[in-house]
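B., you asked whether I could sanity-check this one before it goes into the benchmark set. Here's the sequence:
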Amino acid sequence: MRFILTLIVTILLMAALIALDIAKPLGAHPWWSQKTLMIGAPIGLILGALSARVIAPLPRTVLFALFTLAAFGITKYGQTQFAASYAEDTLAGKLWYFGWIGIAVMAAAMCFSLVQLTLRKAA
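And here's what the prediction gave me:
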């Protein structure tokens, strides 16, 4: 029952972040900022749920937080290089776009782990 509650709370949290279009003010392109979150969030939920069976909640949350920060760094590098090349550097553009999908995956998995950790401590 706690697993389903964790899943529902995480889905609602990610839906709120997508509805608020949180990626746009953080540096995603306005044309595809919500699209990348909608692609990455379900993958992250699956990753978080599968990893819940293998890794304890606290180390898993820290691990996903570090991966989220790494994805954000890669994404910012891609964004700055793409802008500096006047949209000529396709690799940088791909780093920027797919980096946001990676951020969404890792953030959703981290949220799942964080909600699960919070619910365990509350019980």
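One thing to flag: The first helix runs from residue 2 to 19. Otherwise nothing jumped out at me.
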